[in-house]
Amino acid sequence: MPILTATDLVKTYPEEERPALDHVNLTIEPGEFVTIVGPSGSGKSTLLHLLGGVDRPTSGQVQLYDTDLYQLNETQLAIFRRRQVGLIYQFFNLIPSLTVAENITLPSELDGKPVSEGQLALMLDQLGLTAKRNALPAQLSGGQQQRVAIGRALINEPAIVLADEPTGNLDQHNSQEIMRLLHYANVKQGQTVIVITHDPQVAAQAQRVMTMTDGHLTEGR
Amino acid sequence: MSILTKLGWRQLRVERGRTLLTIAAMTLAATLAVATLVGLRSLQDSMYQYQLSSTGGMAVAFPATAAQTVAKLSASPLLTKTQQYADEGTIKVDHTKTNDITGAIHLTAVTPATKPALKSMLASGRLPQAADEVLLADVLVTAQRKLGSTIQVKSAGHTHQYRVVGTTNVYASSFIPTGGVLRITPHLPGRRITLLAALKNPATGKADMVSLTKAHDLPVSQLRLANQALKVMWGAGDTKARTTQIIIVLVMLAVIGAVALIMIYTSINLAVQARRQRYGLLRTIGTTPQQIRLLVVQESLLLVLPALLLGGVIGIGGLALALQWMNRVLAGNELPVILYLHVDWLPLVGAALFMVLVTLLAAARPARRASRVTPIEAIRALNPSPRLTARKLRPTWLIRHLHQPMLKLGAIFDRRDTRRGTMLVLLTVTVALFIGLTSFVGNFWRVFESPASADVIATLLGQGDQTKQLKRTLAKVTGIKRQLIVRTTSVMIKSGKETGNDLTLYVVPEAQLARDFGGQPTLLNTKVFYETAKGRQYYAWQINPKTNRRLHLVNGFEAKKAGQWIAPQYMALSKAPGFKGMLYPDGLAGLVISLTQFHQWAGKLGMKDADLTSEVAVKLSPKSQHTAVIKALRSQFGRAQIADVVADNQQSEAIITVVRLTAWAFIALLSLVCLATVINHTFANLTASRRSLAMLQSIGTTPKQVLTMQQGQYSLLLVQGWLLGSLLGIGLSALLFRVMAGAYSNAHFVWPGVQILVALAALMIVWLGFGFATWRMLNHQNIDELVRSSD
């Protein structure tokens, strides 16, 4: 049974004539590592946001297992995002006033499930951030900030991890480190990962590559 | 601490400037709430103490009863302090034939604890110190029976000799009888002892005392209460008075609430607007709308705590200073009221609850707004696009006609500024409240003001022409600011609509009439209120100058002589040299003539020189000289009828002055809070527009040009707010005046021109401050950093 199904997804922005997504259909199986490539403005990020329940489509459906995302109300959708989806952005989007540890545990805390000290220590160790545990985001490098964002995305062990250009703002070394962490989540924890990228090297690391052009999604490069 | 509380706390610490601004706004609101509630409580307590000053602090007098019952009553926890007196029965005092007392004279024994009450009753002399010393009612004083003399009192078959050491004012409002003889003794004789007491809880005073009296089988009908004092504390069982006072407090709280609400709402809303992206980000990682709402509310409540503490300290401290100042004003005017600062838990808890409630209300809308931020807004760093209608995009007449480019740009920004509505409402409300309330209060007080008159007026009936002696006497007294010495008599009008009305003739020397009135008989006219049969009130001259060019004057209703026709010149009393402010202006039109004219008309009027009475009216500075003037007049003219206007007005003026000062203080604080809201909003908007201003600078606009644009834009807003606020303020003032003062006959509305100018001056100061802050900001900001930043 597919973990994620998108059916006839259309997204039109009021100020634009052409739809950002034009009847997109997509099926993702559990445990897949998928990358979506395509030129700027092709609709990649829009698709990712719709798959993650961040934005609402103009028409169409997104199902995670049996749940139709857009039948949920705002609160249910927020809880869904918190528990089932891990989101990673190009510009990290960390809360500047929270420490590394607090940023990572934020979704779990919001869910009323405090993270155990052991679990947090393990996560920090995997991310290579043990020494930075109490640092604020402004005191970290770009790569470190992105690792914190990955930690935050993974802390609730979501079914699916969505990453929007996670390496777009990083050097090669840090990019590799980020991809290693995503693969770790995919292989060791069995999480489904969808990555949007411009980088051919990143795209090449996926089991499945899809291409987005002018709002249309096609299989393969 | 939950993660949301922690997040809120950190956010407040990180955004220190905004947090301090919000705390400052809340502190002002809290100061207003604390100062008002504690101030009202203090005023209530001070007026209670003032009302009880004549009874030595006692609020109740129980029916006379046996010592045993008095002891039981005294032990009641409802009473705090007690005093006692006993009626020793009626007495016979020697030489009674010359006094005015027709009823029986009582001998009253009082305990030493009643001394404070006795002091307030004392008309002359001192309080008794020895067992054979007594106080005597002032109406019992005769040539033989006076201060220092020994009197014989026959009581219950025994004769006692007492020495009079003081006299009591028979009209003093005290529970202790003042019409007889009073002696002080530690052991009260007799079975009829009256217990006087102060109350622990005046708010339930009447109900408590009635039950206590009943519980001791005493007749409730003989229970006496200091009703005026209890009324102040809502404890007299007067539902109507209590309801009125509660309504006044509620109205004040509603006004404070509205102002505080606007102020706190503005601060929270600005903070929420600045954090939209943050809220969106939180939403992407699964924060529910309810959690975002909670976050905003929690942050707001976190800020209320320090604001309450600061507001409490500033409010109480400021109130203490204000009361000190008000007491100085009252003492300077010899007004017998002392204002006490009364801080107890009720107004403080009330203020805290009030602030929490206002903050919750103020945070509700911004919190809802924050919870509606969509996750996509955060990811895309979307700034909400201004919703501009086609009308807003069309250039206005002003934009079309402005040729200075930066002013034109300022006008365009002003038209398209989405935050403009809130600012305009704030400004308008501020100006309207200031103008409306100050104008209303000014107009309202005019209704209760004692008519402008002299401070001492003396009439020397039947003593012939005493004008020279009066002048000589007054020349020896200091502090006389103005004096009017005239000879007067009364005639009656027998023509026109005013037939039957009395008219005072003021007879002055030839030279005075020539100097001040061109030698013409002059009718000093006044304006008074009239009411038609249908109840419509109108303000008109007492004697219509158009229809009464000629007046027929006669000597009273039963005049035997034909009288005199005259054609006086008319002059408003308020403008008459020498007379204005010296006579009661209401309903007392008078005719000024010279002595020669009087003698010419005397025959036709059936009057003679001896009918003229010498009168003197004196205006003093300081007013405390009234006693010296009266003493001088008394010593020279023993039979003079003297009106001590200063003393007569003291009590009512004291209360009016207290209420007036309180009202002004309240309005001043309210206006300051409103103004602070405007300033807060102005500077928050300025901070929020830093980036767009930096963008203008980055494309080559000089700081001076940007300043011109900003000042131009802000001027448009201030002028509109001032105009709208002034109009609304006039409306508010007129409406309040009509509702609350329209029924008073001497009420007339004065337009708030001065207040409108004061509001304009205050706004100009804000405008200059804004210009200064903008200039500093433009010259110190890092343009590159601001232009690159995405948040």
UniProtKB/TrEMBL annotation, chain A:
Pfam families given in the database record: ABC_tran (PF00005)
GO molecular function, one term: ATP binding
Keyword Protease annotated: no
InterPro entries: AAA+_ATPase, ABC_transporter-like_ATP-bd, ABC_transporter-like_CS, ABC_transpr_LolD-like, MacB-like_ATP-bd, P-loop_NTPase
Assigned keywords, A-Z: ATP-binding, Nucleotide-binding, Transport
Span of domain ABC transporter: 4-221
Keyword hit for DNA repair: no
Origin superkingdom: Bacteria
Protein name per UniProt: ABC transporter ATP-binding protein
UniProtKB/TrEMBL annotation, chain B:
Domain of life of the source: Bacteria
Domain ABC3 transporter permease C-terminal residues, every copy: 251-375, 665-780
Entry membrane topology: Multi-pass membrane protein
Keyword terms, alphabetized: Cell membrane, Membrane, Transmembrane, Transmembrane helix
Keyword Transmembrane helix: yes
Transmembrane segments: 20-40, 246-268, 301-325, 345-364, 424-445, 661-683, 714-737, 749-773
Family: Belongs to the ABC-4 integral membrane protein family.
Classification via PANTHER family: ABC TRANSPORTER PERMEASE YTRF, MEMBRANE COMPONENT OF TRANSPORTER-RELATED
Protein name, entry field: FtsX-like permease family protein
Organism: Lacticaseibacillus suilingensis
Taxon lineage: Bacteria, Bacillati, Bacillota, Bacilli, Lactobacillales
